[in-house]
Amino acid sequence: MKSDPDRELVEACQATAPTGLEGAFRRLYDQYKDRVYNVCYRITGNGTDALDASQETFGILFRKITEFRFESKFSSWVYRIAVNAGIDHKRRSSARWLPSLEGSSDQARETARLDVRDERTEAPLTAATRHELEAEIQCAISRLSPKMRAIVVLRYVENLSYEEISEALQISLGTVKSRLSRAHEALDRELTPVLDRHFLR
Amino acid sequence: MSAQPGPHCADFRAALIARAEGDVVDLALDVHLAQCAACRRELMRTEQRVELLRGVSGPGAPVELDGLVVAAMQAGERQQRVTRAVQSLSRAHTPEDLARRLAGPKAPRVLERLVSEDLADPAKALASRYARSLGRLRAPQDLDQRLRDLRPGPLQRHAPVALVAAGVMLALGALIVAGILHGPRNPALPTTPAGPVLIVERVDSVRDLDPLVGQMLSGVTGGLADAQRIVGKGF
């Protein structure tokens, strides 16, 4: 296994058990906060649950970092915790709201609009179009099962390799490929009108 | 060449996705694609889908995440402390072990010296301890002030005597005035209209006094009974 790029920071945290958001743990946090939040956001589909799931992820990291033994890459471990936290929050949130299919798509569309992007650099029409497109993609991702959602997010949003996904989710390479294949089938059904509009224009 | 998916198309599904992601050289797939229009169309759709999915931007973590994480860490720290304490107790196998873990603070080292002194010369140690305890007593800081507040002034010290003297003087004055205004009560005594006459008369009961004088005396002395007592003593 290649040496873990985070090893030094993680070992620094383990040597002096972190007492707060400072020192080596602060550096790890700064390094991972956007990635963790992004994964949680794409899995939960809304900012509030993503924030809760991210908080939970870092809380677990803080408590368990001294037990991490480098049996996988640190980043894989972080992603695994974030994915599980995101799925748990999404499940709880779904149980709370029980929205209709139409309602959930509206909700996903609304929350996807909250994406922060520097719109000063692009024309308003382009920004609006991309907002709409992202909302539709997020909506399609949200309709996937949690397992397929996690694969799609890690592969296409976080650009992890199959091996990294396999390590993060603790599943075999074959399972990664078959789940990704099924996810594409499901996404094809959801995204066909979007693809037609977007690529045939 | 066929436009419908063939029986072997499903076998190339994963390879097709990998190709759409852009980094695979797969000769078997190339051969299949050359023969299968359905898979070529599927490859194009998959490439478009991958492009869309990769184009989704990741929102940055909001600033409030910092505060939430700090709160989670503090909560985690408290939980860890409790967990450690519980684990430490759960590792106690015997009641003695548990009692040892739950034991309070250890005796200070000075205790050994004190006990040795006690054993060597108990009387001296007792006296020494008593003396130390006496030495440690300190009067409260506001004691002086309290004593000053309690000490009576010269006026307060003589107040009872002055009060009695004033009462007696008042009573005497009242008797004199009453005598002047009402004159002698004994008709046998001659009257001298030329001027006021002071008549001194012994009475055994307050009832023998002029009613006005009796009331004044009662008022000064505090009541009829006290007035009677004064009269009885030879007022």
How would you describe this protein?
- The complex is a heterodimer of chains A (201) and B (235).
- In chain A, 39% of the residues are buried.
- Chain A is built from 9 helices and no strands.
- By secondary structure, chain A is mostly helical.
- In chain A, helix 1 packs across helix 2 and helix 4 packs across helix 8 (162-169).
- Chain A starts with 6 loop residues before the first helix and ends with a helix.
- The model of chain A is unreliable at 98-120 (pLDDT under 50).
- Chain B has 235 residues and is mainly α.
- Chain B has helices at 13-21, 27-35, 37-55, 64-90, 95-102, 110-120, 122-136, 143-150, 154-182, 211-221, 224-232.
- Chain B is elongated, with a radius of gyration of 58 Å.
Quick rundown:
The complex is a heterodimer of chains A (201) and B (235). Chain A has 201 residues and is an all-alpha fold.
Question: What key phrases describe this protein's structure?
Answer:
heterodimer, A: 201 residues, mainly alpha, globular, B: 235 residues
| Proportion of residues in extended strands of chain A | under 5%
SSE-based structural type of chain B: mainly alpha
Pick out the low-confidence regions of chain B. none
How confident is the prediction overall: mean pLDDT of chain B? 75
Helix fraction of chain B? 55-70%
| Biggest beta sheet summary of chain A | none
Tell me the quaternary state: heterodimer
Classify the helix fraction of chain A into a percent range: over 70%
Q: What's the count of strands of chain B?
A: 0
How many DSSP H or I helices of chain A? 9
Q: Please tell me how large the radius of gyration of chain A is.
A: 18 Å
How would you describe the shape of chain B? elongated
Portion in strands of chain B: under 5%
Query: What is the rounded Rg of chain B?
Result: 58 Å
Greatest interface: A-B, 48 and 34 residues
| Amino-to-carboxy terminus distance of chain B | 153 Å
Major pleated sheet of chain B: none
